[in-house]
Amino acid sequence: MTPLFQKNIPLFMLLFNLFSSKNFFHSHVLDKILFLYYNIIEYLLPLDNGENVMIFKLFLCALIGYLIGGINPSYMIARIKGFDIRKHGSGNAGASNAVITMGKKIGVISALFDIFKAYAAVKLSVYLFSEAALAGVVAGVSCIIGHIFPIIMKFRGGKGLACLGGVVLAFHPLVFLALFIAELILVLLVDYICIVPITASIVFPIIYYNMTEKALAGTLIYCIATAVILYKHIENLKRIRNGTEAHLSFLWKRKTEIERLKEQKVYDPLLDEENQEEIKE
Length: 281
Fold this sequence. Notes:
- This protein is mainly alpha-helical.
- The chain has one domain.
- Helices cover 70% and strands 0% of the residues.
- The protein is built from 15 helices and no strands.
- The termini are far apart.
């Protein structure tokens, strides 16, 4: 196998060196993700004489996706209400924790926004760079990464479930519907919402691979999103093992779940009904 970076693409090298430097990202994990991310594109994408132009267009797709992904409604709404959502509930700046800390209405709004932003990132990139076969894939994965590691939130964002949903929706509405129904059944059976992003992030690249004539490059790029989402849910799996992870049934058995969390000594006072009423006002 030819070693990476042997091709003469100075523009790509310049951009990669800028955006993978630790001084810029301040994140070990993100450095590794970007290294793998851009190298897969460079190594697997068939290039012609305009390879620098194509790489730059894909970089713009990644930038569009990343910046759109960094717009986090649950974090912004919580800030307006006077608290940092990452310090309460599950500690996640996403729609599921918005439900826990601010109620169902704000949680649904956050989820719909996150789905739409990923959908928009993919469609916008495909529209602007239709000649780039991987434009939508790159933008979608970048949006998920931008949601999880947003620069404006010091790389402490959400966990990517709703954004993954938007990417799937942009790929094919029927695939989105089928996955939604399957995951809904699964989450009702296991009573843990974190199982949804874990399983969906694994299943979707397989579906993509089989529906796109075994497009290896796109599949591998989607697998980066899978790896990141799995990494972000390690703590959830540990809490499930320890019995301290909040159940989905928190939505309709709030008092019972609060009592259980109190027994496990992981209760957050923000979840008290009086505090919830203040937040919703």
